[in-house]
Amino acid sequence: MTAPQALIRHLVVHKLLKEPHGPASIALRHAEMTPTAAAQRLIDHIAQRYAERRGKGYGRFEEDEDNYPMPRFVRQYLAGEQDFLALSQAMMRHLEARATEEPLASGGYVLIARVDDAGADCLLVALVTEVVGMAITGDFEIVDSPQLDLSNLRVAGRIDLSAWQAGAERYIGFLKGRADVAHYFKLFLSCNDVVLPLKETQKLVQGLNQFAERQQLPPASRDALFERAHGYLDEAGDEGEPLALDVLVRRAWPEAPERLQTALAEDELALSGGFVPDRRALKPLKRFKAAGEHWKIEFDRSSLRAGQVIYDRERGALVLTEIPEELRQALLGG
């Protein structure tokens, strides 16, 4: 039997009642739900869909807890001042206010769960709508059958309680999706998602390195990946164009762009979308840089392919060729 992806610790479902351009109201459940096998499958499916979706935003709690009260709600819950049901009901009242402020927001069932997700203690919130499907009865009649629309998860967020308590820089994630929906849900989560282009570009370069290592790419393939990625990112940074992840993965790894996209969308990397690449962070894609106790060295990756720098694996040594005359004279005179 496959282990659950997000083991349920607490779960409750409420309902947000809202038509576009209309006021919002809520229908609250008055008891937690028992984590049944069906509930576990639902949470696993939502967690998987959330993890697979690209275009997520990341951030931290806003400091103004009067206007952005989510951190106060969660802190009171973790301190034992209210139970999980009371936490979820407080969250719903805040969601009602935020949804009312957004004309195009629509309602649905709101699942609020505390889960153990890949070793992290997380608060998962998802708004799920219904669609009308069909079913066949015991008498072989075809009837309408309302069901949850799990293929169209548009509104969901995840608060990593472990990371928050550990003082991490960012610990909230949410689906960006449609701008209007993402904005009101971000406000509901009390999330400040200020994006720092330099840090995001550094994380992107780190993600490309991790992908190359996990795929065990040979040097030539690794260099081609980095060179193509550098070309797109350098061009975008020069023109002030925001990162388009789907364009990057197609250009950098045309052999299997969906594999690279999945790697860069991992929650562990927490890579935001829509930032303008900072060209200062792109050097590792083109150049090697290292230092020992008595030396420093930096060279282009292309130097390895051209034979100007040779790595001797057996001796653990670098051999430099085509040394400039001024360096040769300096070495002879040293």
TrEMBL record:
Q: Where in the cell is it found?
A: Cytoplasm
Any keyword Cell membrane? no
Q: What is its main location?
A: cytoplasm
One Pfam family from the record: NA37
Q: Tell me yes or no: is S-adenosyl-L-methionine among this UniProt entry's keywords.
A: no
Which keywords are on file for this protein?
Cytoplasm
The record's family statement is: Belongs to the YejK family.
Q: What is this protein called?
A: Nucleoid-associated protein YejK
Species: Chitiniphilus shinanonensis
